[in-house]
Design a protein that fits this description.
The complex is a heterodimer. By secondary structure, chain A is mostly helical. Chain A is about 75% helix and about 0% strand. Chain A has 2 domains: about 30-280, MetI-like fold (Orthogonal Bundle); about 330-520, Orthogonal Bundle (MetI-like fold). Chain A has a two-stranded parallel ribbon. In chain B, β1, α2 and β2 form a beta-alpha-beta unit. The relative contact order of chain B is 0.18. Chain B is built from 15 helices and 10 strands. In chain B, strands 1, 2, 3, 4, 5, 6, 7, 8, 9 and 10 form a 10-stranded mixed β-sheet that branches. Classes of the chains: A mainly alpha, B alpha/beta. Chains A and B meet through α2, α11, α12, α15 and α17 of A and α1, α2, β2, α3 and α8 of B.
């Protein structure tokens, strides 16, 4: 474009940005308006019943679950992040990459795998009985895994990468000089961790923890398998068992309000913590070498969460799938499902990451408070159970489809039918709303690390805003953007409840196929689909571990 | 250099998104030959042999979608543009819900009326039962249990010995609703508290886990559907499940002043069915002798048509004496049953 055309356009482009962000927020929020409408009719006596019999217990269980998962993810996530950053031990690089692997496995699959492995007639206890010389489970068996502890364990070991990932990145970025100052003041490495590294990494822990806790809160699969009745499960049974959609919508909205309030509080508490680096590269921490037994112990400790969160369930799936593929082969339905899974997930990720970047970029110019409001509203879907997103999106897309159909029929004589629902666009829409937070969060934290002086320098050199984006910012945040794209892709691929309700007739994804098999009780057939979900998720997760390999 | 690669990247992105959009838009343009669209809360794999046989004998293609929860919501949202023709559910509560919400249409068909007993279809032909399943008791072989009443499950002698899935599952709310219809809500509450006190593990999982848990000595008795016994014992679910099925005795229980509680799988024609004639043909096919036999063989359910053969594995459970309560009476107590489950903290 010529110089002359640039000046007058600049104004327009700023307004365009406001317009874009409003439209994006509208797209995200419209389904929630429908949810409010669904809640409006009211549900007689619902709240008296809930307050008396359901909420106290469900809220307590939810609190216990979240505290347990929070504690476990922080201990594993930050502990290992520090171990891998501050020490050098055998296989450290390999283990560092592998620590992200549990991200590829949906929680419901891990829960199911452990239920089977640890059952009194499962392989683990049978082997133990054989060693101990017992005849059968009537003589000797371990306590049941279906419990709150079991649920916390499964979720904690699958979700810790959400904390590990940002914390590890932050540790790697932390200037060694701070750590060394601590050391010269006489702190041991462990003291350095607790007094310097950990407090400094609070923003990263907060980001990772809120993602992990929202995942745990919205989980239905693992909680159902383990027999834990969370608030989300209560919404579900109000809707499904009592056919009380208004009631379910009311509980969902109440819960959502609470989560949003917590998210805003968390942002508020961090309002003074800006951790943009100096433009110069900070000197990274030089890891201390652990040799001999200490080194072996460090490798072992690092390997445990990988084995529990990924290795064991993956081996279980391999075994179950092999038992099935041998005699029966692989049904062509699985390949069709694989195709639609990839199509849906990549399309939603492309749109989501672009929108996330636009939002994060626009927010950069806003004041702290309105920026927080925009980002929180854009992230609302992540704070909402997938089932609730699905029942909110359904009237939205169907309403749009019917209006469009009416209008086109009026003009052209023949309607479009249910365009969005019939084409799978409804599924994309659901993924977009549900997981936009991942893309926005990734872009926002990446942009936050770029000092504003960079913008000023670019502006001084005469670069208009658009050029600043393409030539200055994007190249710098490319890796972080790719990382959030990977996270969003994996999330979309694992998504079940919204896909189940919104997909077009005759279309299956791997997750819905697996669910169908599970509903039928032919879990062995499901193992192939489950294995594919995990395998397809593996490649991006491995890419992610390369991308975040931020050692210079 | 940087500029070039960025531009390449963005145009590649545009091309990719265009391709993806085009592919997605092409999805619904599948062939529009003679076909019928089936929305089902039953996993279509279970009835695929039936659907294939239907297509073979009529040339009508069946497109199916498995919608677990939210069938009514999806139909409501789609309104008169809904492609749904036949709606199939596995619980009478869900089935009658669809009619209550005005999502079905009455069908007059001599074939259906003749094949299905009057108490197993809607008075105006808004819904039809296709097969029945009994809520039975699985028991450890060591007990040598010969007969049992549903009321006995609350007996303190079973303390720490009972396994059952979530009280909020439709199969259990239907059973509890039937209990309320027999004995009233207060008695049902006492009964539920009794079972709750007897539970060996949280009320969760599926019916087959009950058999697996009995094998694993987690519990001695439990509640499950009859057809799971066929699925397990036939080996259709794999060698593991075969062992679970063989580890249990199955008893057809009864209410003290009644019979065995049954639920049904059934179907309706959708209110705005675009292929109404084909939908009726599918329903009529499903109650034909051939299909009813397939139902029993493939699903181990009790055929709805009197005189249709029962699978030997199911017939071996003994003669089924169906509880005489009208279905409408049970359905009426469903919400109360679900609230009771919350009240006694059954699933906690």
């Amino acid at each position: 474009m010529s110089d002359g055309a640039r000046r007058p356009r600049r104004r327009v482009s700023i307004d365009l940005q406001t317009l874009t962000i409003s439209v994006l927020l509208l797209i995200v929020l419209v389904p929630f308006a429908f949810l409010v409408a669904a809640a409006a009719p009211g549900s007689p006596d619902l709240w008296t019943h809930l307050v008396r019999y359901v909420l106290p217990a469900a809220a307590f269980d939810t609190a216990v679950l979240l505290s347990g998962v929070g504690l476990l993810t922080i201990v594993i996530g930050t502990g290992l992040a520090w171990l891998v950053t501050a020490y050098n031990f055998p296989a450290r690089r390999l283990l560092d990459g592998c620590l992200l692997l549990p991200l590829a496995v949906p929680t419901y699959i891990v829960a199911y795998a452990y239920l089977d492995i640890l059952h009194p007639v499962g392989p683990a206890q049978e082997a133990l009985r054989w060693v101990l010389g017992y005849e059968g489970p009537r003589e000797w068996r371990l306590p049941d895994v279906r419990s709150m502890a079991g649920c916390v364990g499964v979720l904690g070991f699958v979700l810790y990468p959400y904390v590990y990932l940002p914390t590890r990145a932050l540790f790697a970025m932390q200037s060694a000089s701070l750590i060394e100052t601590g050391r010269t003041l006489g702190l041991t490495r462990t003291q350095t961790f607790f007094r310097i590294a950990l407090p400094l990494s609070r923003p990263a822990i907060a980001v990772g923890l809120s993602l992990a806790l929202m995942e745990a809160l919205n989980d239905i699969g693992a909680a159902e398998f383990m027999g834990v009745r969370t608030l989300t499960v209560s919404i579900y049974s109000t809707w499904v068992t009592r056919s009380d959609l208004p009631g379910a919508a009311q509980i969902a909205l109440a819960m959502l309000t609470l989560v949003l309030a917590l998210l805003l509080m968390e942002r508020w508490a961090r309002r003074h913590q800006r951790y943009a680096n100096d433009a110069q590269h900070p000197r990274p921490i030089v890891p201390a070498r652990l040799a001999g037994a200490a080194g072996a112990a460090a490798s072992l400790v690092t390997a445990v969460p990988i084995a529990v969160g990924f290795g064991v369930p993956f081996a279980y799936l391999l075994h179950a799938a092999a038992a099935r593929i041998g005699p029966n082969g692989v049904s062509p339905a699985i390949f069709a499902a694989l195709q639609s899974t990839l199509l849906f997930a990549s399309a939603a990720t492309a749109v989501g990451v672009t929108a996330g970047l636009v939002i994060a970029y626009s927010v950069r110019r806003l004041s702290g408070r309105s920026a927080a409001a925009v980002v929180t509203l854009a992230s609302i879907g992540y704070a909402t159970p997938g089932t609730v997103v699905a029942i909110a999106i359904l009237p939205t897309v169907a309403g749009f489809d019917r209006v469009l159909d009416g209008a086109v029929a009026l003009l052209a004589g023949r309607g479009t039918g249910l365009l969005l629902l019939g084409s799978g666009m409804a599924v994309l829409y659901a993924y977009f709303v549900r997981f936009l937070a991942v893309a926005v969060g990734g872009a926002e934290s990446a942009l936050a690390k770029l000092p504003r002086s960079l913008d000023d320098a670019a502006a001084t050199l005469g670069a208009p805003p658009r050029q600043r984006v393409w030539h200055v910012h994007l190249p710098l945040i490319r890796r972080a953007m790719a990382a959030s794209a990977v996270l969003m892709f994996v999330d979309c691929m694992k998504e079940l409840p919204a896909t189940l309700l919104l997909r077009p007739i005759g279309v299956e994804t791997l997750a819905t196929l697996l669910y169908g098999e599970a509903a039928r009780g032919t879990y062995e057939d499901g193992a192939i689909a489950a294995l594919l979900i995990v395998s397809v998720g593996l490649a991006p997760v491995l890419v992610l571990s390369r991308l975040t390999d931020s050692r210079p | 250099m940087v500029r070039r690669s960025m531009l390449d990247g963005s145009s590649r992105f545009v091309r990719c998104s265009a391709l993806v959009t085009a592919l997605l838009l092409a999805l619904p343009l599948a062939a529009r030959a003679q076909e019928v669209n089936l929305y089902t809360t039953r996993e279509p794999g279970l009835i695929q042999p039936l659907l294939d046989a239907f297509t073979k004998s009529t040339g009508i293609k069946v497109n199916s979608i498995f919608v677990k929860d939210g069938l009514a919501e999806r139909l409501t949202a789609e309104g008169d543009k809904s492609p749904a023709d036949v709606l199939m559910t596995v619980d009478f509560g869900n089935l009658l819900d669809l009619t209550d919400k005005g999502l079905t249409q009455p069908i007059q068909s001599g074939v259906l009326q003749k094949a299905i007993p009057a108490n197993l279809r809607g008075a105006k032909g808004e819904w039809f039962a296709l097969s029945l399943r009994a809520r039975v008791v699985y028991a450890s072989k060591a007990l040598a249990l010969k007969s049992v009443a549903y009321e006995d499950l609350a007996d303190p002698r079973w303390k720490g010995k009972v396994c059952i899935r979530s009280g909020q599952h439709p199969y259990n709310t239907a059973l509890i609703a039937a209990y309320i219809a027999h004995h009233g809500e207060a008695a049902a509450e006492t009964w539920l508290r009794g079972i709750k006190a007897n539970l060996a593990r949280p009320a969760t999982g599926g019916d087959r886990e009950v058999a697996k848990d009995i094998m694993g000595a987690v519990c001695d008795v439990g509640v499950g559907n009859s057809y799971y016994v066929g699925l397990m014992r036939s080996g259709a679910g794999g060698p593991e499940q075969l062992k679970w099925g063989q580890a249990i005795d199955v008893v057809l229980p009864a209410f003290r002043q009644g019979g065995t509680q049954v639920n049904l799988s059934g179907a309706s024609v959708a209110k705005h069915a675009p292929h109404r004639a084909e939908a009726v043909r599918l329903l009529e096919y499903l109650v034909s002798d051939e299909a009813q036999k397939l139902y029993a063989e493939a699903n181990y359910e009790y055929p709805v048509k009197p005189g249709a053969p029962i699978h030997p594995l199911i017939a071996a459970l003994g003669p089924l004496k169906v509880d005489a309560l009208p279905i409408a009476d049970i359905v009426r107590h469903r919400a109360a049953a679900s609230r009771l489950v919350d009240k006694v903290g059954f699933d906690r």
